[in-house]
């Protein structure tokens, strides 16, 4: 095959083809080429993270089944009846002239996903947060819409007057960021107060999770609470208070010392009179010191 001889914008109808698209596992998918002024079209496929292009048919002819890709509309359309994870990758159609020269080509990246069919969305509301004046705080609200992907699915934030919080003119201190996850089946919206003011603690903030079918819509109202400031007070002890604590201790210790010194021997005798001398054994008999013996020592 020769080199490209025409501008691709003159060959492909751009509003009918896509550079990127999703395909759901187990579902039907068509990938369009939409070329004009050509003699024939060939298709190639490169697997995700693959290095080489495979010319159609890229499957083994002997293993051909109803689930294998097929071509329609004079090779303008590549049809996959039952999408699987192995179908994820890049599909390229190439338009050729009658002289077998390449007129142009177009590639469509297909990302395969799996999701759950839902009649109504599953909503996950924000949690109450704590903050201080001058600080920053964020709230997250999420809607899982399943496979019912639609532009009408929405997760939004409002104030008490039902003004949208993503309006920079009305709320310069606020910021709302929406992120699509899991192939647009989950929408996550994060509301951020960039600089907290005292008035924010008195307001209610509302998150709405609404679906295309209007079923199972959820409303969550959340508050910002002011974090308590704990102040640890150090107690200063004066010299007089120290004297009031130390003096009684000194007196008590002095009395204990004097009492012990005066009655030392009597205390010792009293203790020894009640302790058996097990180490004094003679022919299997135990001896005890009698009180009278102690006084005769």
Features:
mainly beta, Immunoglobulin-like, 3 domains, 4 helices, 36% strand, disordered C terminus, inhibition of host interferon signaling pathway by virus, early protein, interferon antiviral system evasion, disulfide bond
Describe this structure in words.
The chain is mostly beta strands and 297 residues long. It has 4 helices and 18 strands. It has 3 domains: 106 residues, Immunoglobulins (Immunoglobulin-like, Sandwich), CATH 2.60.40; 105 residues, Immunoglobulins (Immunoglobulin-like), CATH 2.60.40; 57 residues, no CATH class. It is 14% helix and 36% strand. The strands form 5 sheets. Strands 1-8-7-3-4 form a 5-stranded mixed beta sheet, with no helix packed on it. The protein has a 4-stranded antiparallel beta sheet with strand order 9-11-14-13, with no helix packed on it. It has a 4-stranded mixed beta sheet with strand order 10-16-15-12, with no helix packed on it. Strand 5 and strand 6 form a beta hairpin. The N and C termini lie far apart (128 Å).
Record the SSE blueprint:
Elements lengths: L7 H4 L8 E5 L4 E4 L7 E8 L6 E2 L14 E3 L4 E4 L8 E8 L5 E12 L8 E3 L4 E3 L5 E8 L9 E5 L15 E8 L4 E8 L10 E7 L7 E9 L12 H24 L1 H9 L4 E6 L2 E3 L3 H5 L2
Parallel strand pairs: 1-8, 10-16
Antiparallel strand pairs: 2-6, 3-4, 3-7, 5-6, 7-8, 9-11, 11-14, 12-15, 13-14, 15-16, 17-18
Organism: Mytilus galloprovincialis (Mediterranean mussel)
Protein name: Soluble interferon alpha/beta receptor OPG204
Function: Counteracts the antiviral effects of host IFN-alpha/beta and key IFN-inducible proteins involved in viral RNA degradation suxh as host OAS1. Acts as a soluble IFN-alpha receptor and thus inhibits the interaction between host IFN-alpha and its receptor.
